[in-house]
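Hey team,

Filing this mostly as a record. A colleague (T.K.) asked me to run one chain through the structure pipeline before their review meeting, and I want the input and output archived in the tracker in case anyone asks later how it was produced. No errors, nothing strange. Just documentation.

Input sequence:
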Amino acid sequence: MNFLHLIDSGGLYGAENVILNLMSRQKELGYNTTLGSIGEKADEKKAIEKKAEMVGLPVEIFQMKNGPNVFGAIRIYKYANENNIDIIHCHGYKANILSGLLPFRYGNVPYISTLHGWTSIKKFTKMWAYDWLDAVMAKRADRVVAVSNAMRENWRLKYLNISPVVIHNGIQSKEEDNITGKDYKLLAGLDKIQLKLISIGRLSKEKDFSTLLMAVRQIKNYCKHNVRLVIIGEGPERDNLIMLAQKYGINDNVIFPGYMDNACNVLKYFDIFVMSSLTEGMPITLLEAMRAGMPIVATAVGGIPEALEGGKCGVLVPSGSEMNLARSITELHENKQLKKELSLKSMLRFQEEFTVEKMEAKYRSVYIDVINSKAT
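Output structure:
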């Protein structure tokens, strides 16, 4: 079978890593799988394109003007026909919208749409509108996939009468273990820190790192712990978060090392993995923390409670609450037995449900079902 994975990528984040994991597994099994990278002519080579080429995955670049582009959609379907593509697999709102634009199937190539999660946290913004259009266009797909049960139950999908198949995100069963010089610099002096916290994610509003910073202030000032928080990632909120750390008097307790390739390599050097998001799909960084056997404190949003089995594999807290976050982190750190139990449970949960092998097998079943439906 021949697959084309479509995405307009803005970085190397969760959805991008899911795609590359899935494609690598498909290649291992002998399938022909190509990354279709959507972008504008002025775009430099994207991070996902570089990573795909690095791991030996073919890349086809579709350059077009931004926005709903019917001619761009036709080019994609023309490529699919000329290269005997059996399934177009769309990831992200731009790919989903493009594939849904055509009033008919160009050459009758089926496509499926994976909804990785909607990040808009305010109504009537540009992102909110794109999320809505994404949901509307998903209705035209031959099959819709949600990455969590929480995503499947989203009110937009209910309103549009869309019933997705749920396929959890998956990552490699074993983490790489290649610590670089940059990693060692980050880890310097950690042995002298009493409470070592780590969080990984795009520095954007929906990740709500500002609440995490306030929680660190609480831990430092009231719990009297010698604490260090490392937030790995880049994004538009970086300068604001650095300013907040200075304002709260914790700039010596928080480090922003920027984006790090394979950031999961350093997880094991920290005491607790923290996720403070306001909205999530099925976050890859959470799955990496589970794979590493990290004690986890995370907000009960999106697919997080599903991943952590309602709190059996990690501590869940309400979003936006610095007090709950600070208290949960402190209590978990001081309860060594609970930390040990949660670490073991999260590792077992990961192996049971979130490996790339399990994800690929479920997608393959959907592909075959769609192809067979088209053939009849």
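Quick notes for T.K.: The radius of gyration is 21 Å. The first strand starts at residue 2 and ends at 7.
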